[in-house]
Automatic annotation (TrEMBL), chain A:
PANTHER family: RAB GTPASE-ACTIVATING PROTEIN 1-LIKE, TBC1 DOMAIN FAMILY MEMBER 14
Record-linked InterPro entries: Rab-GAP-TBC_dom, Rab-GAP_TBC_sf, Rab_GAP_TBC_domain
UniProt GO MF annotations: GTPase activator activity; small GTPase binding
Protein known as: TBC14 protein
Start and end residues of each stretch annotated as Disordered: 31-60
From TrEMBL, chain B:
Membrane topology category: Lipid-anchor
Protein's organism: Sinosuthora webbiana
Name recorded for this polypeptide: Ras-related protein Rab-4
CDD domains, alphabetized: Rab4 (cd04113)
PROSITE patterns reported in the protein's UniProt record: RAB (PS51419), RAS (PS51421)
Single GO BP term: protein transport
Annotated Gene3D superfamilies: P-loop containing nucleotide triphosphate hydrolases
Length: 435, 211
């Protein structure tokens, strides 16, 4: 019934306003239709077709109709003029038929094209999923069981560069980072228990916790514990999982707290929360703690997290050697503008790019960092500079500084890794470690 | 847009006092509620009109954690102005002010103009530092003083503008010489053009004498 009403309304309008002999049927949900009054329907219809009440000359109308894009649910039906009106001249009828056929052909063409596009997308997605699936199989069945012998083979290194599938990422990171410190799950539990004790005594304002922690005043430790609380809520705030009440809030708190008990001489340093967070996203709590502690124990990370300024400057100087070698023009431009590498490198190195790059890209950087070590962190930095070399050369100090401390959010991943791959980490036959 | 002067500004103070949020509010006129903590240094720049002069501020927003001091200290050199920020709801951040001040006076230019900002003014219910106490501290240490709110935007623009105005006054009175190395002040592109065409520069100075 509703449909009939709708049709009548439409055709009535057509008869009144124009005498083009076809009608458009949009599939209107019945339920919605039954509650609407005809006027409303007509208004909506007019909005849909982009036509107002203004009477249009038939010619204009024809053009409009040709521009109309048929949806897959819309049918075009050619009808003769109603009997109560004079018949169309044969010529006009012929013309209309022709136009009608053109429209149908066009609509079919477009639908075919869209279907092809969809099929292609689907194929690509399947291919991608297949390759990830295959990679997972290779990692699980071939590489991980024979880690020691296979991890350095050419084939594995190449697969590694492509990015580790998320499901095995944590395992590979753990194996690659290793556990030089021989931290056990029990040790983690002990450190965590001590951290919890401290939190309790602080929150109750209780007695001094025993002072074996070399050279750090109670006030300092308190400040550091307060800062952890503050920073957790400021770690990947857009993910909303580490904030108070989020599912990983306590986990992140535990790992950072346990670390301050495990290494009171290092304590909590800003930037750590990002590293711990990325590990938590890929590993269980205790394993994340083991990877975290071992990762921070690497020479480059120790130098930075202890804020050993002298050693940091050595790293920056080495970086500049490779910067000049790889990108001499940009290097000169930076020198001219007094733009020193610490301005952008500090954030990148402290957070291992997890704050400055989109998370999926950061994880891929971590993949290769686990494979190649600290050298890759600096290679990535040069890759970023290379990727944006053209724009950076045109900027002045403040714009470069702003750009590099807040990279664009839509980095193209393939171009990004291609530009990292193009960076040579050899300078006058010297490798990174030698410089 | 061209400018008459370029000032290097610092934003310093303890972690979590809202330094980056103040900067964001000043530049974007919005409160950033999903803010990260700053590691090392971040930047902002804005051209403001102070009494008819266009001043470009180049703002260095530094990390607040004590541990980063050795790094952030190296950014003080040649700063013309600074926002020294504490959190009115945290006495600890207020107690740290003396340390920050010593660093700034020692490492930036001698004539650095500092404005003390008691941030989070909107959290008056949790206040731990009174306005009177802080303004006394400011007076004793020759600082300008405002209570600000990066959340509502209250007094944020004013803090930057007042600091810039004081620097401009010092330039006009001859107390500050923009051409001295490490003053943290440079002529902007507009001023440089004027210097290069002496006739217009003369006209400009005549105008200045008039007022």
């Amino acid at each position: 019934f509703c449909r009939n009403l709708f049709t009548r309304k439409q055709s009535a309008r057509f008869e009144k306003q124009n005498d083009v002999g076809w009608k458009l049927f949009g599939k209107v949900p019945l339920r919605e239709n039954s509650q609407k009054d005809p006027k409303k329907i007509q208004k909506e219809y007019e909005e849909k077709t982009g036509r107002g009440h203004r009477p249009l000359s038939p010619k204009q109308n024809v053009r409009k109709n040709l521009d109309f894009e048929p949806l897959s649910t819309t049918a075009l039906i050619l009808e003769d003029r109603p009997a109560n009106l004079p018949a169309k001249p044969a010529e006009e009828a012929q013309k209309h038929r022709q136009q009608y056929e053109e429209m149908v052909v066009q609509a079919k063409k477009r639908e075919l094209k869209e279907a092809q596009k969809r099929r292609k997308q689907l194929e690509e997605r399947c291919k991608l999923e297949d390759s990830i699936g295959n990679a997972v199989l290779t990692w699980n069945n071939e590489i991980l069981p024979n880690w020691e012998t296979m991890c350095c083979s050419r084939k594995v290194r190449e697969l590694w560069w492509q990015g580790i599938p998320p499901s095995v990422r944590g395992k590979v990171w753990s194996l690659a980072i290793g556990n030089e410190l021989n931290i056990t799950h029990e040790l983690f539990d002990i450190c965590l228990a001590r951290a919890k004790e401290k939190w309790r005594s602080l929150s109750t304002g209780g007695a001094e916790v025993e002072c074996e922690d070399a050279g750090f005043s109670a006030a300092d430790r308190e400040a550091s514990l307060e800062l952890i609380k503050l920073d957790i809520s400021r770690t990947f705030p857009n993910l909303c999982i580490f904030q108070q009440g989020g599912p990983y809030h306590d986990t992140l708190h535990s790992i950072l707290g346990a670390y301050t008990c495990y290494r009171p001489d290092v304590g909590y340093v800003q930037g750590m929360s990002f590293i711990a967070a990325v590990l938590i996203l890929n590993l269980d709590t205790a394993d994340a703690f083991i990877a975290f502690s071992n990762l921070l124990n690497k020479p480059c990370q120790m130098a930075f997290f202890r804020v050993d300024h002298g050693l940091m400057l050595t790293y920056f100087a080495a970086f500049e050697v490779f910067f000049e070698e790889n990108l001499p023009k940009l290097f000169a431009h930076f020198k001219k503008n007094n733009l020193t590498p610490d301005i952008y490198l500090i954030d990148w190195i402290f957070t291992l790019y997890s704050k400055s790059l989109p998370l999926d890209l950061a994880c891929r950087v971590w993949d290769v960092f686990c494979r190649d070590g600290e050298e890759f962190l600096f290679r990535t930095a040069l890759g970023i500079l290379k990727l944006f070399e053209d724009i950076l050369t045109k900027m002045d100090f403040i714009h470069i500084a702003q750009f590099l401390t807040k990279l664009p959010e839509d980095l193209p991943s393939e171009e990004f890794f291609a530009s990292i791959a193009a960076i040579q980490m050899q300078s006058r036959n010297k490798k990174w470690a030698q410089v | 847009q061209s400018s008459d002067f370029l000032f290097k500004f610092l934003v310093i103070g303890n972690a979590g006092t809202g330094k980056s949020c103040l900067l964001h509010q000043f530049i974007e006129k919005k409160f950033k509620d999903d803010s990260n903590h700053t590691i090392g240094v971040e930047f902002g720049s804005k051209i403001i009109n102070v009494g008819g002069k266009y001043v470009k501020l180049q703002i260095w927003d530094t990390a607040g954690q004590e541990r980063f001091r050795s790094v952030t200290r190296s950014y003080y050199r040649g700063a013309a102005g600074a926002l020294l920020v504490y959190d009115i709801t945290s006495r600890e951040t207020y107690n740290a002010l003396t340390n920050w001040l010593t660093d700034a006076r020692m490492l930036a230019s001698q004539n650095i103009v500092i404005i003390l900002c008691g941030n989070k003014k909107d959290l008056d219910a949790d206040r731990e530092v009174t306005f009177l106490e802080a303004s006394r501290f400011a007076q004793e240490n020759e600082l300008m003083f405002l209570e600000t709110s990066a959340l509502t935007g209250e007094n944020v623009e004013e803090a930057f503008v007042q600091c810039a105005r004081k620097i401009l006054n010092k330039i006009e009175s001859g107390e500050l010489d923009p051409e001295r190395m490490g003053s943290g002040i440079q002529y902007g592109d507009a001023a440089l053009r004027q210097l290069r065409s002496p006739r217009r520069a003369q006209a400009q100075s005549a105008q200045e004498c008039g007022c």
